[in-house]
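Handoff note, outgoing to incoming analyst
You'll be picking up this chain. Sequence as last confirmed:
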Amino acid sequence: MLRNRQLLIEAATLPAEPVWLNQQHGNRVVRADRATPTTHYEADACFTDQPNQVCAVLTADCLPVLICDIDGNELAAIHAGWRGLAAGIIAETLASFTQSSHRLLAWIGPAISAPHYAVDATMRDRFLSLDQDYEKSFTPTTKKGARHQWLMDLAAIASLQLKKAGVERITPSGVCCYADPRFYSHRRGPGTGRMATLIWRTCVT
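Most recent structure output, in case you need it:
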């Protein structure tokens, strides 16, 4: 793992070691500029307003979400699985920005798509108890007698949360990591690695 991370730093010519998170599927956000290389941060999002600070998240079905303001001065990387979405990781991350939401840009990266993400009625009910507008993010499966009766669209839920927070410019990748063999997928398995999604601002001298 350490070797792969070093290869990534070299291949992407990163300005610094990324802030690697010990992801918990929660809603904690850390600031990259306050991080130290030897500290393991239990969090699911990383924010910075400093140049040459690299924010990173690892995924293999969950959503990687990148956010920045239109000038590129503030930016964040988010790891958002269903637990993080339910816990409000997107809202918590947006609260770190000083820029107003209408000046923010969001990108939703490769993740498992609804056709490959079947969940049970309990999961659907949990999200509908938070917001009835999530109903459109669940469609019934066509498999008769299936225990997991609903197909859940994580990207649609993330987009809805961003829109309700005032973020208007959202770009979904439209890529399913389960269906596309170029990407890792925990559900596709057996055994898988993780994809790193990075965001940073380079200081030009």
